[in-house]
Amino acid sequence: MTEKISENSYVLLYLNSRRSYLVKVEKEKKLHTHKGFIELGELIGKEYGARILSSTGVEFVALKPQLRDYIFKSQRKTQINYPKDIALIVMFSGIGPGSRVVEAGTGTGALTTALAFYVKPSGRVFTYEIREEFIETARKNLTRANLTEYVEIKHKDITEGIDEKNVDAVILDMATPWLVVPHAYEALKPSGAFVSFSPTIDQVVKTVEALEQNGFIDIQTVECLTRGMQVKRGKTRPQTLMTAHTGYITHARKASRPTP
Amino acid sequence: MTEKISENSYVLLYLNSRRSYLVKVEKEKKLHTHKGFIELGELIGKEYGARILSSTGVEFVALKPQLRDYIFKSQRKTQINYPKDIALIVMFSGIGPGSRVVEAGTGTGALTTALAFYVKPSGRVFTYEIREEFIETARKNLTRANLTEYVEIKHKDITEGIDEKNVDAVILDMATPWLVVPHAYEALKPSGAFVSFSPTIDQVVKTVEALEQNGFIDIQTVECLTRGMQVKRGKTRPQTLMTAHTGYITHARKASRPTP
Amino acid sequence: MTEKISENSYVLLYLNSRRSYLVKVEKEKKLHTHKGFIELGELIGKEYGARILSSTGVEFVALKPQLRDYIFKSQRKTQINYPKDIALIVMFSGIGPGSRVVEAGTGTGALTTALAFYVKPSGRVFTYEIREEFIETARKNLTRANLTEYVEIKHKDITEGIDEKNVDAVILDMATPWLVVPHAYEALKPSGAFVSFSPTIDQVVKTVEALEQNGFIDIQTVECLTRGMQVKRGKTRPQTLMTAHTGYITHARKASRPTP
Amino acid sequence: MTEKISENSYVLLYLNSRRSYLVKVEKEKKLHTHKGFIELGELIGKEYGARILSSTGVEFVALKPQLRDYIFKSQRKTQINYPKDIALIVMFSGIGPGSRVVEAGTGTGALTTALAFYVKPSGRVFTYEIREEFIETARKNLTRANLTEYVEIKHKDITEGIDEKNVDAVILDMATPWLVVPHAYEALKPSGAFVSFSPTIDQVVKTVEALEQNGFIDIQTVECLTRGMQVKRGKTRPQTLMTAHTGYITHARKASRPTP
After folding, report:
1. Nearest to A19 by CA among B217, C241, B257, B210
2. Fewest CB atoms less than 10 Å from the CB: which of C1, C50, C79, D147?
3. In this structure, are residues A95 and A117 in contact, taking their beta carbons and an 8 Å threshold?
4. Which of C123, A194, C225, C170 is nearest to D120 (CA)?
């Protein structure tokens, strides 16, 4: 028995690879697009994956949103977190169902959403944010993805300290990650993971130096590039444009303090 | 209270960024390395992250293995699955705790390990493999990572059909993924995800064509490149060599059948 | 004694890294820009590199055009040739001052301009183009770069044969390079170079097969990616967007016919 | 009438894409390879491109060396200059037949060889090198490529000044390019080009700052990556390994001094 679209659930209305809409299904609501409008109420009771026509007869598909749809469609008031980077950050952090994770800054909650998704149901994300205006946005995005219960949003400056102890990972996407390194060491369980995402080389150098001076080992920095392919028999080729840079990912693991 | 290293648990003995050892801790066992041997029994009762000296006085750190250590250290009788690719495959598949996933081929179980890690504890991985010699290796690798209870290994040819219904994702790393596309459509729940990893362009073209002909939408193919940085104040630069290609990742989502 | 800007010569009026203008200096002519107009006649008698103010007081620099300025500023009625690709094509072709080169198709003459620039004064470029509308454009671009005397433009279909013999290189940027391979073998001097630029994989495969079947050796295909850096102390990072693909460069050398 | 192989000329004995030998043809000389030896005297009077069998019956092809063969086969006592980088350096420098160029350091003469090749016959390369042991190597490499008459090797420290005036380009591949920037400004003709190749970010930042402070404009830094393709019908794919980094190329043009 397959899951049906219900009122107040979210669907991704997919038009083509460049255009899709993440919307809440409500009875009397219309979604207006450049291809006409869609009566969202008509979706209630249908299966996910259903095809629906707009008022001008153009076909959309009502997909069940995935994690990456929630990430992509986060309100972009702050730096974008790319799925490729989030995927690698999750991998390098070693987190999974049940993990306890500290994150900063929260921003619009794109990375927070991913962390909560992977640690649920028994894990927790503790996310620090100093800019009050972001906290509301992040909370909305987490609510939409149905993940609020796994996250504690903290209106606090993480460079002044981390409240939690014995966490599995500390994950940073902020301007001055190197200031958090000593606090991360204290918060992490032995052998725990540190991951930081930074756009500039200078941030990377300062962070790596702080890690070296604070008992971390297995320190590595990588950048990740993804390139799309245009696939068509006899005409296959890479796409014309690509994102050249988002940021560097630095990761490390906590060792016990060296004996002096 | 932090977790201690116990007998029969695994540790990653880390020497440096190029050399580390994934070993089972047993009382009378020695690990022999080019830097002398290590008495593994001495680790019992220590915290993860502990520093230990080899017989020649060289320091190792006893880390708690992460998912990517289990992946990297899979016995390589078959194609290697890179953490970067596994991370993206997991992201594009949309799976998480509780998901039900079909995979083929099992190979040494590197990707299987990752899938089981992310769907546990309530999800399941159904993995198909026709080559009997791999099944034992995969089982050993899953046992080592303590993930066997979340996986059902099936000695079957997936090109002849998929037993499961209503699964969240079908994930393929095999020579002829296009032959599985119609079966994947039947096995997937509405809006479910298809992901395939292939080294050659020709495989990609055939797979994309099969997806287009079988009711899938949002079909995309990407390749992922990661490049390490050598970080040192005043001398920072990208690394000299990198992996230029592992494979292309094609992903898509199941729509309802078009009305004729 | 340095060269002065004279009437009817070309200058590159440089505003910033995104905006510059390749113009002919004429007495009564004005260049209109979004930063006001420039009296071109005022440049006559000045040194190249001179700074000049527009009518609104914005500074431009009157640079002497380089080869890559002529290439970039070719009228783009056809596919763009990127400096990076042209640079590699020239390198792989082995041509230099004095070389005799066959090229097809001429297009707007961007690659032709580069070839003529490097083979002058004693070399020659024989360039084939079937589309009459391009020939005039190419001629204008070559005139502007002062290179017409080194080029013979031929309104002919190169897939039907090459008139020249004993040439140093055959260089192709056209839809069906594989059809030219047998003619290239006949036209090339022993050990001469073949270079072809193609956007799609399919073109590459057909061309490589034709080369293998026609006595060529040292057959290699590469793609070239360039990424800009944003350099600023403390904020250095790669640029955000880049060209992901222009085309593949296939090159090879003529060996004597194998003895049967 | 085609050119024949003569005594004392150089040939590239090509075995396959991984193995080739740049040798001087002498009457009684043998080339010893892991596939048997080749009697070099037998090549005299043959056409370039001729196939020849080794003592064990393996076929080699006697190609006429191209510029990139001379570059690749330079004795590698110093940093390697890659053809991709040399091709871009030449393009960005704007040099061609007749140009006058200053270069430092000479190293083994790989880049010098390319510069001389493109500026001949009427241009000149003035190359500075402080390490005496390299000068002899560079001279040998230039002699082999038959380019000595276009080059003046100077045993001098370029950071102390450039003797030449009114040159078309200054091209640097050395540890401290920023120290040369003021001298480059004096040596260059108006609108002349500066190009520098550096492995590390720190070198790039210092060089760009020096350029900004010394009247240069159009300052850009790029890195170039090339990736080979394995082309085979039905199995085409990028190669497995690639060079991830050689260096960054910074280029700029001289403007007149800003009026204070």
Report:
1. B217
2. C1
3. no
4. C123
* 3-state secondary structure at position C178: helix
Chain A residues inside the 8 Å CB shell of B244: none
Q: Place domain C69-254 in its CATH homologous superfamily.
A: Vaccinia Virus protein VP39 (3.40.50.150)
Q: Collapsing DSSP states into helix, strand and coil, what is residue A195?
A: strand
Report CA-CA distances (Å) from D110 to A139, C186, C193, D80, D161.
59, 32, 21, 8, 23
pLDDT in 10s for each residue of chain D, 260 residues: 568 999 999 999 999 988 999 999 999 999 999 999 999 999 999 999 999 999 999 999 999 999 999 988 776 645 556 899 999 999 999 999 999 999 999 999 999 999 999 999 999 999 999 999 999 999 999 999 999 999 999 999 999 999 999 999 999 999 999 999 999 999 999 999 999 999 999 999 999 999 999 999 999 999 999 999 999 999 999 999 999 999 999 999 999 987 66
Q: Do B91 and A86 touch (CB under 8 A)?
A: yes
Residue closest to B68 by CA, chosen among B85, B51, B52? B85
In chain D, residues under CATH classification 3.10.330.20 are 10-65
d(CA B58, CA C198) in angstroms, rounded, equals 54
CA-nearest residue to A233 within chain C is: C202
Query: Would you mind telling me the total number of residues written for chain A in this entry?
Result: 260
Looking at chain A, the domain(s) classified CATH 3.40.50.150 span 69-254
Backbone phi, then psi, for C131, in 5-degree steps?
Answer: -90, 110
Q: What is the CATH number of domain A10-65?
A: 3.10.330.20
Q: Residue B67: helix, strand or coil by DSSP?
A: helix
Whether this prediction's pTM lies above 0.90 is answered by yes
Contact D51, D59 (CB under 8 A): yes
Beta-sheet strands, E only, within A173-208 = 188-198
Contact call for B228 and A222, based on CB within 8 A: yes
Nearby residues of B250 by Cβ (< 8 Å), 6 or more positions away: A231, B177, B194, B195, B196, B197, B198, B204, B207, B208, B211, B219, B220, B221
Phi, psi of A120 (to 5 degrees): -65, 155
In angstroms, the CA C81 to CA C132 distance is 19
Burial of D220 (0-12, 13-18, 19+ CB in 10 A): middle
Q: What's the ipTM?
A: 0.95
Residue of D nearest to C61 (CA): D255
Whether the ω angle into residue B121 lies within 30 degrees of 0, i.e. cis, is yes
Chain D residues near residue B242 by CB distance under 8 angstroms: 241-244
Which of D189, D191, D228 has the CB atom closest to C220's CB atom?
D228
Q: Which residues of chain B have a CB within 8 Å of the CB of A201? A: 236
C218 vs C211: CA distance, rounded Å = 10
